[in-house]
Amino acid sequence: MEKHSEYQEKWKYMLFPFFLALVEGGVSLLRRQDTNGDVWNYHLYNAYAWFNGRLGYDLGPAGAHSYLNPYLDSLFYFAILHLNPFVVAFLFGFLQGLVAFPIMYIARFFIKDKIHQFVLTAICCFGSTFFIGELGSSMHDNLIAVPILMSFCCVLKVIAEKENKALIFSGLLIGAATGLKLTSALYIPVFLVLISLFYGHRIVGAFSFLSSSFLGPVRS
Q1: Angle at 43 between CA 42 and CA 45, to 5 degrees
Q2: How many angstroms separate the CA atoms of 47 and 76, rounded?
Q3: Are 141 and 147 contacting, i.e. CB atoms less than 8 angstroms apart?
């Protein structure tokens, strides 16, 4: 009976973030078409240039933005070429809404009351004007928040359980996020300080985190 109750509890913590992600997809549909300036400036063009072999041919048509990593832009470009606009709007809102999973983990880490955990997760998903303002759009801040917060979850796991694998995963996630969007690098020194302060094997931990975090940008 106790195992069954524990199993149900785990499912609650999985289904609630998934439900929030679905709601985010619905909210994205209500926001209508994405017409932000970056779409016209470089989000579509960078992906087009990458798919059509023009990255080294057209020299800086969007200025410095022409040289940003086109991977995330390519996801958006491919979606609008091959999918219904309503599907694209829901899909990107849903993908960005997956941020609810790491938020749920963070809430459980710091808060013991279960009701407060769910409430805080919902507030974080819907209470940010910046997040809702970019929801479902081609702006990558919401999407890149998913691996960044997942990396932070791994840092918390390292601190709480001295888990070496989580340390490597944390570095890989924040490294991949940095490779996809350079501003994600701002979080690397913050995570490094946390690991250095709270992880038992400080030098080993710091070195493992840094070495794995640099793999992302190199691969990208």
Answers
A1: 60
A2: 8
A3: no
Beta-carbon count within 10 A of 93 CB:
24
Q: Is the pLDDT of residue 1 over 60?
A: no
d(CA 3, CA 105): 21
CA dist., res. 218 & res. 214, Å (int): 6
When mean pLDDT is compared over 96-100, 110-114, 119-123, 187-191, the highest value belongs to: 96-100
Q: What is the C-alpha to C-alpha distance for residues 135 and 114, in angstroms, rounded to an integer?
A: 27
Q: Is this model's pTM higher than 0.90 or not?
A: no
Residues 6+ apart with CB under 8 A from 2: none
Distance between CA atoms of 113 and 22, rounded to whole angstroms? 25
Residue 175's pLDDT band (boundaries 50, 70, 90)? confident
d(CA 216, CA 84): 32
